[in-house]
Amino acid sequence: MCGIIGYIGTKEALPILIKGLRRLEYRGYDSAGVAVQDKGVLQRVRAVGKIDNLAEKVKDHDIGGTVGIAHTRWATHGGVTEENAHPHVDCSGDLALVHNGIIENYRELKEKYLAKHIFQSQTDTEILAHLIEENYQGDLRSAVQSALALVQGTYGLVAMHRKEPNKIVAARLGSPLVIGVGDHEYFIASDTSPMLAYTQKVIFLDDGELAEISKEGFEIFTLRDQKISKPTEEITWNEAEAQTNGFPHFMLKEIFDQPTVIKDALRGRLILEDGSAKLGGLNMTVEEIQSIKRVILIACGTASYAALVGKNAFERLAGIPTTVEIASEFRYSDPIIDRHTLVFGISQSGETADTLAAIREAKRKGAYVRGIVNVIGSTIARETDGGTYIHAGPELAVASTKAYTNMIAVLLMYALEFGRSNRLAIATGERLVRALQEIPEKMKIVLEQSDTIKKMAEKFKKYDDFFFLGRGVNYPVALEGSLKLKEISYIHSEAYPGGEMKHGPIALLSKDFPVFALLTKNSLYDKMRSNIEEIKARGAPIILIATEGDAQALALTDNVIYVPTTMELLEPLINTIPLQLFAYHMAVLLGKDVDRPRNLAKSVTVE
């Protein structure tokens, strides 16, 4: 949530900043602003709503200069107003600052140090501007270091000062920042997307680090002013990969990306002749793998539903007791962890604050801790002792699609690797490897039904409530389908295991309460069919996901989406796609902002 872009170089800053903000829109925001300085003058413009509003507003100002900062805000402290939008300034207007994160002790700081300062917003961020002003004695870096020594909370902070026109200072604690190294120009942003048009050379700041950036170069320090050296990394994504490639929305493009990106996740990791998988980032010996007595999968939202699929796989293939923990609850639950526990932190962005806090707690308790993330160089990738990139490529729609299926693919491969190291027969492993290799083509078969699913969405767009039902490996699919529908279409939906309907939820069924059920040919087919018969008897409209060739499904409803058959553990990779398409088409038909749904952010960097 929230986005930062800063620039210092030889080009006009304003067009770069506005373009950068557009690249950050996927993170979720409700207002935006920009500040540029030139020849001793600092100009600031802010606007509520879309970047277009800000872009239109800056036309009324003569803004020049080659140094500037900009921000998209997602409201936490204070309402959605221009006064609360970033950048914020100090009393003199000499200092401008943007900030991601939360300053937890902002009230105490205001009362103790800033009684004489004049505040213009209700934000916690403005406290930082005045606190830096209070400590400023001609050196912005020193003032930022002194101010942050008093702060409790999280921040990705970028500041500039009118009296030091050739300098930007950035600091990070718990909220990501990355420096982009261009040709006689530098960028600072909350992720790489705003700078991909200009450079693919980057340096990731870690917690407790501060960067001083000028047109001549940059230096990195600790908050105690110790100079440190960090390597430049090369980002493999390019700007073209971050565009819609002719699709009307990023979300639809990313749904259709899945056959390609799952190949990227599987490539070089499957070993057919051994019926196994090998993920190099695990960084564990065979003996260490065999010592694991418990696996804990920590995640939030969509990632937690991928984790539920992983739980099934670890227990069935490897025989290891596995639990899925919601990250925001994990570290407050006094978890039982020892040296025989393996913890995976799962996050698309690799910056999810709750997941970060949870894996830090697991490390303190002595577990093996590994990450499963999409974003290269993200905090979880750097703070864990190993793990795996899911290789889904940039995912710019707020609602996750291709990252979700790639997370499942990686978890399945981990479960296969652990299974073959423990008890799984080679023949079973070979069948699973072959089935995984067939998944991309089977995904394409489902995607070809997009227009049919659109017609089904047209038929059901009038309903205000939905149930999603699944059993076994398809219960997490139901959860994910329900989440997608509510995320982007704002339709109320709930998900249940099929057998739970009769324990209460069935009371809601009527002709106005449709049920979307997963009825594929697996070990629970007969049980699930009985559950759907109960729904049919109560007159609720039904949509089914069924296996190709299952004529019995048409006896239950006319609304059937057929999917190719695959091994039961792999069904979520196929069965999720119709639910993604259904949610997408419903949202479009209802006129919703599919890529940037209200109140949501792509990367949740506050607890």
From TrEMBL:
The keyword 4Fe-4S does not apply. GO terms for biological process: amino sugar biosynthetic process; carbohydrate metabolic process; fructose 6-phosphate metabolic process; protein N-linked glycosylation; UDP-N-acetylglucosamine metabolic process. InterPro entries: GATase_2_dom, GFAT, GFAT_N, GlmS/AgaS_SIS, GlmS/FrlB_SIS, Ntn_hydrolases_N, SIS_dom, SIS_dom_sf. It holds the Pfam family SIS. GO terms for cellular component: cytoplasm. Gene3D superfamilies: Glucose-6-phosphate isomerase like protein, domain 1 (3.40.50.10490), Glutamine Phosphoribosylpyrophosphate, subunit 1, domain 1 (3.60.20.10). It catalyses: D-fructose 6-phosphate + L-glutamine = D-glucosamine 6-phosphate + L-glutamate. Homodimer. Coiled coil: none annotated. Residues 285-426, 456-597 form the SIS domain. GO terms for molecular function: carbohydrate derivative binding; glutamine-fructose-6-phosphate transaminase (isomerizing) activity. Keywords: Aminotransferase, Cytoplasm, Glutamine amidotransferase, Repeat, Transferase. This is Glutamine--fructose-6-phosphate aminotransferase [isomerizing]. It comes from the Bacteria. It is found in: Cytoplasm. PANTHER family: GLUCOSAMINE--FRUCTOSE-6-PHOSPHATE AMINOTRANSFERASE, ISOMERIZING (PTHR10937), GLUTAMINE--FRUCTOSE-6-PHOSPHATE TRANSAMINASE (ISOMERIZING) (PTHR10937:SF0). Its EC number is 2.6.1.16. The keyword Glycoprotein does not apply. The active site is at residues 2, 602. Residues 2-216 form the Glutamine amidotransferase type-2 domain.
